[in-house]
Structure formats: C-alpha cells, structure tokens
Amino acid sequence: MNAFNALRHPVFCTVVPPHLLDKAAQSSDSRRADLAQSTLEHDAMLRTRRRVTTVRGIAPTLEAAPSDGPARTIYDAQHRTRLPGKKVRVEGDPLDKDATVNRAYAGLGATYELFRQGFGRRSIDDSGLPLDASVHYGEDYNNAFWDGRQMVFGDGDGDLFLDFTVSIDVIGHELTHGVTQYTANLAYLGQSGALNESMSDVFGSLIKQYALDQTAEQADWLIGAGLLGPNVTGVALRSMKAPGTAYDDDELGKDPQPATMDGYVNTNRDNGGVHINSGIPNHAFYVAATELGGKAWERAGQIWYDTLTGGQLTSNAKFTDFARLSTAAAAARYGEGCAEHRALQKAWSVVGVPLVG
Length: 357
Prior knowledge:
With 357 residues, the chain is of the alpha+beta class. The chain is built from 11 helices and 10 strands. A 6-stranded mixed sheet has the order 1-5-6-4-2-3, covered by helices on one side. A two-stranded antiparallel ribbon has the order 7-8. The longest helix has 26 residues, at 30-55. The relative contact order is 0.11.
C-alpha cells in the first residue's frame, strides 16, 4: 500500500476520548473546565487539518530504516504546538536528562519489538518506517495522538491527567493506529471506527504485557493505568477485562463502555461512539486471551494480527465481520475445532456478536 492510499481515511486519533473531556469541560473548577475546553478545541482543529491534508493528498515522506531495527527520533515541542520541535534524541543516543524523552523513546522501541518479534512486522508500515515522536506538546495539553505521521504527547495538567508518556500501552495504542492505517485502514466511524480503536487497545495492552513479560492472567488489562491524576477516582481510561469500570469520578463522569452488545450505544457523537463501543471487541479479546492462557500475544494476538493484516477485513467492517474473520483465522492457523478456534467462538458469544451477519 502506498503512502497516499494509506491516508485515504482522514483519521486523527487521540487516546483521551471527547466524551471524557466534554464532561471535564463542565467542571465548576474554572481551571479544569478551561483546560478541558482548550484541549477539545485544539483536537477539533487538528482533526480539520488532518482532513484537509488528506484531501489535498499530502502524504508523509517515507525513508528506509538504516538497519533491521527501530529508527527512533524524539523531539521536544517546548510547550508549543508547531511540530515536530527540537530534535533531542535519535536512535542509539544515550539516556537524555529528560525522563519524558526517555519514556517516549522506550515506548517506541517496545512497540517496534512486539510487532517485529511477535509478528515479523518491520515497523508501522512493515517497511522500516522511522518512528518519530514529539513530547511537551502545548501548555498542559490533556491528550496524546497519532496524526498519521508521528506520535505527539502532551504533559497533562497534573490534576486530571499526568504526563502522557507514563503509560507504555498509551504509546502502543497510538502507534497501532498507524499499523491499522497501513493495513485494513478501518474507517473511523461507527463499528469500523470502534474496531479501529479496539485494535489499538488490544495491541497497546499486548505491548505492555510483552515489555513486562506477563501472562494473560498476570496482566491488568487496563489502558492508561497511571495516567489519571491524583484527584481522579479511577484506575485507567479503559478496562478490557471489565469495560465500564475504569473510572467513576465527579468531574470525569462514569466510564460508559459496554462489555456486550446488550449495552451498545447508538450516538452521533465521537464518530458514532468509537471510544465507547470499542469495549465490546476489547472484551472479546480479553475473553479469548484468558481462555487460552499463557502469553496473550502468542496465540490470541496472532489471530488478531492475522485478521487485521489478512486482506479480507474491509475498511467499513462491522463487528460481525471481524468476529467471522478472526474465528476463521484461528481455524486457518491452528485447525478447525482446536482450542484457539473454540476460544474465539466463546469470546464472540460472550459479548453477543454473532459469527454470521
């Protein structure tokens, strides 16, 4: 897939969903409300810019990696919003004095390692795409995003959100949007958009598990653990094990994610609830991975990767399409009626997604 085709869906992906920031923007605390509103407005501007550059056919410059390994570059945006910023660490450099720079560098490396060692993929595009990231973006910016070309991390406001490099799964989540962009290119709307978000949560969690050498039973299955500020009642942005339980806070509201189709949310907001309904395929992956046990990236993750990259998943895929194709992928790789095949059947049954549309 060439770079222009990879950008045919104008996706701008943030880890903190709009519904959560919307709630914070209604806070009686003027600072909290202003910062949340500022982030929402800035994100909206970036989405518009992303759409315009896609329509104009502006694609990233792709350079070959110098070796069969990651090619990382970290920039310091110096609290401005002009990207990429000042170059502060490149591949092979020693530790920087800035811990945020080092966390971003390590997170890019961990993401590269899982996709390379786990699935034989050379970087985001499978052709050695250099991995760039900018840290210290904006003033108290409460988000992190993949803009189709690079990673960008805000520092958070220190109140509701902390530095967005603290959670390695958040880094993996955003970079996986790039993998999806270069493979199935799932449209960022409705169920295909929720699948897009779920792919990022699944592989973001697997990147953390791989880095920590955890089994499915040992993993916390949380996305963004450690990211919520000291004044927030919650443990993470999302839970794959128990969608809807990640937070319940006076300022941020209650986690709205459903775990099954019985709770599917029909909404026009957030591109049709892409950050909400992703809880359903997220939970299906959790069920499949824990049913199989062991290292989740070895079998359940392989099945998800096969489905994402197999060429049959269309850009407007529904949950039933992914359920059918992933179950078929399990049978193709491991055998009809095998433990992996049965685990997929159980997982989609548990969340209420039929294997036939």
